[in-house]
Amino acid sequence: MTDFPRALVCRTELLIGESHRQIAVASARMSGRAAVFHLAGVESREEADALRGEFLYVSVAQAHRPRGEYFVHELIGLEVWTAEGSRLGTIADVLRTGANDVYVVRDDAGEHLIPAIADVVKSIDTAGGHVVVHPIPGLLRGD
Q1: Domains in the chain: how many in total?
Q2: What is the dihedral sign for C-alpha 23, 29, 34, 36?
Q3: Within a 13 Å sphere around the CA of 139, how many CA atoms are in the beta-carbon half?
Q4: H or E, element range at 49
Q5: Is 0.70 surpassed by the pTM of this model?
Q6: In angstroms, rounded to a whole number, what is the distance separating the alpha carbons of residues 38 and 47?
Q7: Of 62, 81, 100, the domain-final residue
Q8: Considering the domain boundaries, does residue 57 fall inside one?
Q9: I want to staple 112 with a disulfide (CB 3.0 to 4.6 A). Which of 26, 28, 105, 128 is the partner?
């Protein structure tokens, strides 16, 4: 569940499962668009099958992030304001549509779906806890 599997094959260790247990990477390679790992201590087919369905993780500090992009967990909970100073609510979810992400912004009256495009999202300040948007006509409830 990464957009950058190539960034994983250079790792010497990963975190595995819900417990995020550290596990050393004996070797790694790309196979098409997928990263394939030989994990240290996993030597038999049975040992590998026991890990089937487990997620592999990297720490946030080691995660690959292109410039100007954010992780979903960094956006959830940010307050969204219009450039004119009206509060729209907080980001409750981020929908990955393929063309662009869509921020699900909720307040007491319902929700807004805000496309994460440069014409609409003017600034994101994760440290300050807010996002400023310039809504295009018809985007907000009641427009």
Answers
A1: 2
A2: negative
A3: 19
A4: helix 45-50
A5: yes
A6: 11
A7: 62
A8: yes
A9: 105
- Contact present, 104 and 92 (Cβ < 8 Å): yes
Q: Decide if 44 contacts 100 (C-beta within 8 A).
A: no
Classify residue 56 as left (phi > 0), alpha (psi -120 to 50) or beta: beta
Q: Say if residue 95's pLDDT is above 70.
A: yes
Strand 56-57 and strand 13-16: the pairing is: antiparallel
Same-domain status, 50 and 81: no
Q: Do both 48 and 81 map to the same domain?
A: no
115 beta partners: 102
Which residues, in sequence order, are CB contacts of 2 under 8 Å at separation 6+?
8, 64
Task: Using pLDDT thresholds of 50, 70 and 90, give the confidence band for residue 101.
Answer: very high
Closest CA to 82 of 19, 128, 140, 29: 140
State residue 143's pLDDT score: 67
Q: Residue 24 sits in which domain range?
A: 5-62
30-78 per-position pLDDT tens digit: 999 889 999 999 999 999 999 999 999 988 878 877 788 898 999 999 9
- Tell me, yes or no, whether 142 lies in a domain: no
Over residues 9-26, the mean pLDDT reads: 93
pLDDT at 4: 81
